[in-house]
Design brief:
Blueprint lengths: L2 H12 L4 E10 L3 E2 L5 E15 L2 E14 L2 H7 L5 E10 L6 E8 L1
Parallel strand pairs: 4-6
Antiparallel strand pairs: 1-3, 1-5, 2-3, 3-4, 5-6
């Protein structure tokens, strides 16, 4: 394999897993601590918007489970239920390998 051919493969292996979502905070569990001693919140986020899909408008409404761990818990803890923000982070498999879990790493 040539050096040029390995670059796309390296990108595919490394991948990109980044999600930015404008959402409303609809649920926040009690502050807990991970086994490593980091503060954590389990969250429920709700998103509603209208997007274009193949040139046609489409209404999108979803709720997603999320978790905030570490420093971002300060910002998440200060956000009142019902308020909106721009949540950024990455997706992982949910607990027990079921569904998706949004790991929030930043909040604006």
């Amino acid at each position: 394999m040539s050096a040029g051919a390995s670059a796309p493969l390296a990108q595919a292996v490394a991948g990109v897993n980044r999600l930015v979502l404008s959402a409303q905070l609809v649920e926040r569990g009690a502050l807990r601590y991970t086994p490593a001693g980091l503060p954590a919140f389990d969250l429920g986020l709700k998103h509603e918007s209208q997007v274009l899909e193949d040139g046609l408008p489409r209404r999108v409404s979803l709720e997603i489970r999320a978790v905030a761990i570490g420093e971002v818990t300060r910002r998440v803890g200060a956000l009142e239920l019902g308020n909106s923000g721009e949540f950024a982070g990455f997706l992982s498999a949910g607990r027990n390998g079921r569904g998706l879990l949004f790991h929030v790493t930043a909040l604006d």
